[in-house]
Amino acid sequence: MTDIATPTAIGGPTLLQQRRVVTAIPGPRSLELHARRTAAVASGVGSVLPIQVVAAGGGVIVDADGNSLIDLGSGIAVVNVGNAAADVSAAVAAQAAAFTHTCFMVTPYEGYVAVAEHLNRLTPGDHEKRSALFNSGAEAVENAVKIARHATGRSAVVVLEHAYHGRTNLTMALTAKSMPYKAGFGPFAPEVYRVPMAYPYRWPGGADACGTEAAAQAIDHIRTEIGADNVAAVLVEPIQGEGGFIVPGEGYLPTLVEFCRANGIVFVADEIQTGFGRTGRWFASEHEGIVPDLVATAKGIAGGLPLAAVTGRAELMDAVHAGGLGGTYGGNPVACAAAVATISLIER
Hints:
By secondary structure, the chain is α/β, with parallel strands linked by helices. It has 2 domains: 1-72, Aspartate Aminotransferase, domain 1; 88-347, Type I PLP-dependent aspartate aminotransferase-like (Major domain) (Aspartate Aminotransferase, domain 2), CATH 3.40.640. Helices cover 33% and strands 14% of the residues. The chain contains 10 helices and 10 strands. Strands 4-10-9-8-7-5-6 form a 7-stranded mixed β-sheet, sandwiched between helices. Helix 3 runs antiparallel to helix 10. The longest helix is centred in the middle third of the chain and has 20 residues, at 207-226. The protein is globular and about 60 Å long. It starts with 27 loop residues before the first helix and ends with a helix. 44% of the residues are buried.
């Protein structure tokens, strides 16, 4: 067994914000860790850059060889307030010193409630809302589907071409891309249907007509191939991420929302990657003024700690029986403390 070396570098916002390369990338110390990693970690877990990170802050990462690199990855759209933000780190330390876990379903605590209150206030729409907290984006999406199915009594879920929603069995079914996410992992969950996405750059009729034409095609697919009265939810990323950072053609999302409202379908916005200021608004749904019935969030919610949520119309969220939502670690108190600090930072 190899002990974990105690980090000696200090990260956070005081870290010098500069690009500095003093060795080959990866350097000798990072290569040592890479050799250990190869012997210990499953090869199915990939890494883009095989360096050994010892500190991070703001927009840079420092490795064990002293190289300071610009953090364009941001932990895959997670550290929206900068890595190791002082307020977040302090909140985490204070909460960890008080208590680290009880399970909210056993003995509740204020942090969970505070995060739910913030989400109910910040997500689009002024209707009455409720929130439930989870651990990861995929878990949030799965629970959004559970809520929609329970509330409507329907089973079909409609997703878009080029979509990405996670790596669990259901969210792989919801995801469009085969490699590396789906190949060899089937069979997948049933009752998932895919419709055209308004992709302006590649739309045959051109970017200007994209939103209107794609929405018409999507609705026609739902009506003729699935049946609108069989659909529990339409699930979309307001701006697609893994599919190619695709901003849908103007009018596409509002038209889908209108169709869902008219047919008793729950419109779910997957704001896991786009939420918490990532696109210049709190949530990407705001760019076209759409109000989702349910919003799934994660990633940037807690400054780097694992937390996710589903926030939505009170009548939908409260339709699920007691005990139907939850999980051992969902809304962990340390992650909730980080989320409250992160939201406060963004608001300031």
